[in-house]
């Protein structure tokens, strides 16, 4: 005899209350309303970019604005002299006359306006334009580097040279120069040979030691104003700006630009991230680098 379980199927009564409950649940769900692009454009009431008409006019008429105090002061002088001539006042200034005192005050204000205009014309912001590096194009990569490291170094150079004002790139890691690419200073002999990086001499300088000690990026926005420029003789003589990016505790990347303050804040942040990525790659393959003594035979 087989044992089994019998289930009693009880039909669910289909009443009007169930219909009302089901319909109320269906209405409680949120509805998705799609709006066409034309409707959304017409209904947009967000902030719009504002324009300052006065600032735009001043920037477009810089010479006129700078010379306007001269015109105002000159016209004031002529008006004072004309008023003095047509009025029944003695041409000689009299301290007891209120008109004479007013004229002297007006003359002083007019002369002040003229001098202010002359100062405005003499002081102008220096236009910052890119310069052509005074040097020779040079490309040197350590031949013993793994292909992965070589390709990443070339990627860094290509990215920096195309996106930023970078025109020279030098990478020194683990006491050796593994990359020198871009423009380099020409040797004193003038035979078209590039001046190569002396890693040992560079590592003894204050710039290299300071960057490794602080482990922070150093931005020399106007290289000509820094005495440490003499520690970078391998860069073109007219290099305008330099970024010193530490690569962990073992190296540094030197990025030379052709424009004063040419590296923006975004460029500096991006170079920092690129430096961290490059440091991770170099640290991974640092055991495969050629010793410094052997590198010297290749011109480094």
Radius of gyration: 38 Å
Q: Which structural category do the helix and sheet elements fall into?
A: alpha+beta
Strand order of the largest sheet: 1-3-2-6-5-4
Average pLDDT, rounded to a whole number, is 80
Shape: elongated
The CATH architecture term of the largest domain is 2-Layer Sandwich
Q: Which fold name corresponds to the CATH topology of the largest domain?
A: Beta-Lactamase
Relevant CATH superfamily of the largest domain: GAF domain
Topology order in helix (H) and strand (E) letters: HHHHHEHEEHHEEEHH
For the biggest sheet, the summary is: 6 strands, antiparallel
Protein name: Protein COFACTOR ASSEMBLY OF COMPLEX C SUBUNIT B CCB4, chloroplastic
GO biological process, one term: cytochrome b6f complex assembly
Could you name the key traits of this structure?
single chain; 300 residues; alpha+beta; Beta-Lactamase; 2 domains; 6-stranded antiparallel β-sheet; 10 helices; 13% strand; elongated; disordered N terminus; disordered C terminus
Give the secondary structure arrangement, pairings included.
Blueprint: H1 16-28, H2 37-43, H3 53-60, H4 62-86, H5 98-122, E1 136-141, H6 147-163, E2 166-173, E3 176-184, H7 199-203, H8 206-214, E4 218-220, E5 241-247, E6 251-257, H9 265-285, H10 292-295
Antiparallel strand pairs: 1-3, 2-3, 2-6, 4-5, 5-6
Helix pairs in contact: 4-5, 6-9
Overview in brief:
This protein has 300 residues and is an alpha+beta fold. The protein folds into two domains: 61-122; 136-298, GAF domain (Beta-Lactamase). The chain is built from ten helices and six strands.
